[in-house]
Design goal:
Layout lengths: L5 E7 L6 H11 L5 E3 L2 E6 L2 E8 L2 E8 L2 H18 L8 E4 L10 E11 L4 E7 L12 E5 L11 E2 L5 E2 L11 E8 L4 E7 L5 H8 L5 E5 L11 E6 L4 H9 L6 E8 L13 E8 L6 H6 L10 E8 H14 L7 E7 L4
Parallel strand pairs: 15-16, 15-18, 16-17, 18-19
Antiparallel strand pairs: 1-5, 1-6, 2-3, 3-4, 4-5, 7-8, 7-14, 8-13, 9-12, 9-14, 10-11, 12-13
Helix pairs in contact: 1-2
């Protein structure tokens, strides 16, 4: 049997009391379900496996996954959680396996623009071609577009000797907006995504000017896993419409629920592929209830039933919706996804 790609990290003490328990709690707060045994932890997530143990004054981590991209993605997530569980620990860890220090992270790929077309009053569809899209086949429905600042040559991220992905800062910092795949066909080497136009947006300017053959850099996939639950309640504005559309298209035919989508321009109400048991209500911004109010008006299945609440929009509205459902319905962390896709200016 061929061994799977892996990375191993080790650090010597001292360590804070209850280190393994601290890491497990951090994982739970990120919606994960680690298994604990004496002095050790096991987590299976994102198509990979993470083992941690503390023995004889040594803390050890082993990460195994189906490919190098998944290994690096899991390592990045583990380093983030370890930073919160035990500050300074990751700086003392030595690693073997994973990308060569100084190399491009395996989840960064390059593509060529195939075309840009208008599909709504304020939406552009960008089509890309690349032979590296297999990287995006597993691990989430979002990716990031990597754009250098105007007038600056791109400075791409590299992996350091501690296993972290290091990004340029200051004037060389890349703009990294997140988008949702509309279509992804690694075998054909094609993908597309929809971009909601914002005046003054670097990504908008890039998409409007992009010509066939222009280079695009991408990283991912990441975040925004497809929500579970046989009953679903979703709410979002234009910025969330691509994600809502993809979730609905991937939903089982027997799924039930309600979806509310708020737009400022009715011409942005794009066609959706919707299971028969899910209702879709379009809201006009500034007229009638907002997203949080509309979502809160829907009767929820009882606790313990297969249910999920998904909300992505402006930060203040998302915070209000999250508080409503945590307090009103006793929604557990694994039963909801609340994400601020943008922040209103003061």
């Amino acid at each position: 049997m061929t061994a799977l790609p892996e990375a191993r990290g080790e650090a010597r003490g001292p360590f804070p009391d209850g280190l393994i328990d601290r890491v497990a709690q951090e994982m739970r707060e990120h919606g994960q379900s680690p298994a604990l045994r004496s002095g050790a932890l096991l987590l299976e997530s994102g198509g990979g496996r993470v083992e941690m143990d503390l023995d004889g004054g040594r803390f050890r981590v082993r990460i195994e996954a189906g490919d190098a991209t998944a290994v690096q993605r899991l390592r990045g997530a583990m380093l983030h959680m370890l930073d919160h569980a035990a500050e300074g620990l990751t700086d003392r860890m030595d690693w073997i396996g994973g990308p060569v220090p100084g190399s491009l992270p395996p989840n960064v790929v390059f593509a060529a623009v195939a075309g840009v077309t208008r599909i709504g009053a304020n939406f552009l569809r960008v089509e890309l071609r690349s032979e590296q899209l297999e990287t995006f086949a597993e691990g989430g429905m979002h990716f990031r577009l990597l754009l250098p600042r105007p007038g600056r040559a791109p400075v791409w991220p590299v992996v350091d000797d501690r296993g972290r992905t290091v990004w340029a800062r200051g004037e060389d910092a890349l703009h990294t907006p997140a988008y949702t795949f509309v279509d992804l066909d690694p075998a054909a080497g094609t993908m597309s995504f929809d971009l909601y136009e914002h005046e003054g947006s670097l990504a908008t300017d890039w998409a409007r000017a992009a010509q066939p053959g222009a280079e695009a850099a991408l990283s991912g996939p990441g975040g925004g896993d497809f929500p579970q639950g046989s009953w679903i309640l979703m709410g979002g504005d234009e910025t969330a419409l691509p994600a809502i559309r993809r979730i609905l298209a991937r939903s089982a035919p027997e799924r039930r629920g309600h979806v509310f989508i708020e737009t400022g321009d009715p011409r942005d109400r794009l066609p959706l592929e919707v299971p028969e048991g899910i209702s879709v209500t379009w809201l006009a911004r500034g007229a009638g209830p907002d997203l949080a109010e509309a979502m809160a008006s829907v009767p929820m299945p009882a606790a313990g039933e297969s249910r999920f609440v998904w909300c992505a929009a402006e930060r203040g509205l998302v915070r209000r919706a999250k508080a409503l459902f945590r307090d009103r319905a006793g929604l557990l962390s694994g039963e909801g996804y609340f994400s601020a896709y943008w922040t209103a200016s003061a």
